[in-house]
């Protein structure tokens, strides 16, 4: 296959779905990253497989004009509840994030959601761009540096205090709906729960979303896996992740809700 053919075969729409999201309803996805998965994390459960470009350098990956064209080409479905920026990696790496949020709102007239791993929230330009999103779901899987390294595998310059400081700063400025999204991979000790609650009390999100891995992790990049909550896609090469029981996640949600008085939504196994 020639280089040109291979680029052509990789060309894809920056708009996908809608996919059914347990958190947001029918979600139309906008992927500001494109064909090469790019993220400042390389989470052990990432459904994109091993991240291809591990970086925290911002750039334009998909031109805004391309996203406009892809949105306009869509026969817009009335069943779409929200438009979500997610897809092939960390959306805040896209330098045109603010522009994309503005045109998504203008063209779809739907609430906009950004799913972020929160590693760039210390950057004032990122916080400014995110202000126009209706909902920001910020990932917080780890309450210790060890856990961050083990679960999220960040680029070398990113550590837990830096991430927490970014979320706190963003919370102080953001008037929209801030959710903390946490993937629970194994039962937490009492000490871990207490530490998590302390962080939540400092960060004061509008809600907490606890998740468990419900799908096997693909081992190699597959574009079809970018629908964050899609349930239909079954990859060939995959790694089965252990899952904690619904009883454990329910008890954890109750404990966090009682201690913080913040709504906790969760998805158990098979839910
Ligand atoms: S932050 Fe999201 S896109 Fe990045 S590696 Fe983790 S799960 Fe994948």
Automatic annotation (TrEMBL):
Keywords: 4Fe-4S, Iron, Iron-sulfur, Metal-binding, S-adenosyl-L-methionine. InterPro entries: Aldolase_TIM, GTPase_Obg, rSAM, rSAM_sf. Its cofactor is [4Fe-4S] cluster. This is Radical SAM protein. It comes from Anabaena azotica FACHB-119. Residues 23-259 form the Radical SAM core domain. SUPFAM superfamilies: Radical SAM enzymes. Pfam families: Radical_SAM. Signal peptide: none annotated. CDD domains: Radical_SAM. The lineage of its organism: Bacteria, Bacillati, Cyanobacteriota, Cyanophyceae, Nostocales.
């Amino acid at each position: 296959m020639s280089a040109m053919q291979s680029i052509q075969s990789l060309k894809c729409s920056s708009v996908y779905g809608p996919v059914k999201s347990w958190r947001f309803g029918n979600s139309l996805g906008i992927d500001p990253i494109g064909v090469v998965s790019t993220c400042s994390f390389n989470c052990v459960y990432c459904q994109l497989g091993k991240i291809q470009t591990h970086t925290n350098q911002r750039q334009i990956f998909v031109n805004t004009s391309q996203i406009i064209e892809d949105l306009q080409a869509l026969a817009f479905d009335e069943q779409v509840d929200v438009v979500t920026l997610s897809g092939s990696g960390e959306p805040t790496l896209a330098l045109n994030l603010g522009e994309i949020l503005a045109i998504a709102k203008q063209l779809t007239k739907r609430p906009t959601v950004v799913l972020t791993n929160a590693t760039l929230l210390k950057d004032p330009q990122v916080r400014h761009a995110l202000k126009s999103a209706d909902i920001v779901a910020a990932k917080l899987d780890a309450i210790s540096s060890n856990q961050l390294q083990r679960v999220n595998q960040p680029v070398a310059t990113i550590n837990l205090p830096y991430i927490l400081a970014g979320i706190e700063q963003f919370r102080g400025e953001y008037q929209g709906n801030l959710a903390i999204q946490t993937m629970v991979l194994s039962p937490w000790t009492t000490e871990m729960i207490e530490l998590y609650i302390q962080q939540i009390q400092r960060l004061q999100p509008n809600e907490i979303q606890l998740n468990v891995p419900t799908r096997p992790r693909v081992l190699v990049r597959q574009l079809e896996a970018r629908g964050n909550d899609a349930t239909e896609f079954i990859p060939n090469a995959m790694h089965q992740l252990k899952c904690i029981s619904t009883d454990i996640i329910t008890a954890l949600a109750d404990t966090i809700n009682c201690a913080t008085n913040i709504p906790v939504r969760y998805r158990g196994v098979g839910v």
